[in-house]
Amino acid sequence: xxxxxxxxxxxxxxxxxxxxxxxxxxxxxxxxxxxxxxxxxxxxxxxxxxxxxxxxxxxxxxxxxxxxxxxxxxxxxxxxxxxxxxxxxxxxxxxxxxxxxxxxxxxxxxxxxxxxxxxxxxxxxxxxxxxxxxxxxxxxxxxxxxxxxxxxxxxxxxxxxxxxxxxxxxxxxxxxxxxxxxxxxxxxxxxxxxxxxxxxxxxxxxxxxxxxxxxxxxxxxxxxxxxxxxxxxxxxxxxxxxxxxxxxxxxxxxxxxxxxxxxxxxxxxxxxxxxxxxxxxxxxxxxxxxxxxxxxxxxxxxxxxxxxxxxxxxxxxxxxxxxxxxxxxxxxxxxxxxxxxxxxxxxxxxxxxxxxxxxxxxxxxxxxxxxxxxxxxxxxxxxxxxxxxxxxxxxxxxxxxxxxxxxxxxxxxxxxxxxxxxxxxxxxxxxxxxxxxxxxxxxxxxxxxxxxxxxxxxxxxxxxxxxxxxxxxxxxxxxxxxxxxxxxxxxxxxxxxxxxxxxxxxxxxxxxxxxxxxxxxxxxxxxxxxxxxxxxxxxxxxxxxxxxxxxxxxxxxxxxxxxxxxxxxxxxxxxxxxxxxxxxxxxxxxxxxxxxxxxxxxxxxxxxxxxxxxxxxxxxxxxxxxxxxxxxxxxxxxxxxxxxxxxxxxxxxxxxxxx
Length: 659
Prior knowledge:
alpha/beta; 6-stranded parallel sheet; globular
């Protein structure tokens, strides 16, 4: 591999892009001590001399069996699919082994082999990278060594941060920080290196978020008619159940925002089942009362069509004209053209749609309110595209709630309405972690069928996949055990009309077992669904599992969620046990943010130094809080020399990434 091929494979344009390919984690190479009674799945690091080698090559799986003589014991080991280690193991030299004990094999499975005098073995810290398949780790590390350990290399730029902030927090020099990240000599040095890039990321994120918020605050409405509060109260009274105090407060705040001269930029957050949809529909009615059009956009066909059905029911005794718009493949061209014409003429009051509403041909006569459900699944650019269609207030809705103190960092002081109460009281859903062989799965499915309750069965993949359950294989199994007349299969590759037919039959209870992928994760509302079975639950994030769990027990009756996991990974086990022990969406989302990092919480994976590669909203909350204060100071005095230079560097980087 030459340098140009390397850069192309890495998607890099500069040396800095390569250096910012940070380790995804760090592995300890410090010896773990004498092994007395090995534990299945436990990780060990030992020094020893290999002997008694036996190798079996193969096209599929090859292996090397050998023994390792340690200070006080002899270990039986096996190494899979790495025949190139045979020569090293034959040298009869002391080596450092990373091992995992396998009780079924009665042997230690080798995960890594290192020379005791190698850099990583001597420091006891080994960075682990996630690289493209075409880039060998050895080539990547060799490049890093040449770049960072060459004292003559002057290509690295100085930190773009204002010098006063570098001095304020006593941040390490940027080149030294890169060395500390990729070649740490100690945990303390690694911590200091990470601190530099965590602060850079937090400050960049804060600057960008605050800029967006200030831009939103500057937007003014030219024409804004008053809203009749009596009519709002009347339609709320007609709702067939009593709204919670949280819902009423949210409606009050949203209506007041809509009456202000400043454009509304509000987030409505609430756990699954807290009634965000009805708040959104009341907001659309308030928007109709001031003579403007509204849109409710959702990320999937299933969720948006369900919102459409709910809107038709909610507005049935009013003059509000509601239509549904989907992608071209799911609608006739004539129907789409009629909708486009109705929106431009103003005869359509409320549009419920998927991403299809973002198309250039979709134009409104007088758009006044845009509501985006599951806003974290939409990018910032998509939200901006929607707002450009009119002088519109914006209400973003999410079922991934986070605590208010954390929200002030993540959402840059966005106005937030939070729903914590449930319309039917506290949800009665129990979660249990089980193995696929546990008879409870078949027992509870049979019980649900007997009392005519619906059942969700979810798999991470559609088709057969190595080490992962597939929806198709589970569907076949369910048909054999419970009869094809009770089972249906649903996944994203099916035609939209077929998906709708499956969902309708499930909703009516005609076929009560629905085997699917995560297309049912958001918004599917089946009040009688009482059981959720998730296979290979370790493949999902906690927030996704909690969303899936929100599909059951929506009537307030008892419901059961079974998380199926046959593995022995300690982190996966802890994650699933945590979910089994709580229904608190705030605690779950905070745990997920902590374990998985920022991800794309705000709806957009950002690039370069603005991407949260090393910083975490939860574990690095203090860094974010300090960075936010510094960002406010920079934006309040943008012409100061250091501030101006830093802001220019951020703008140049953004232009480079967009090019």
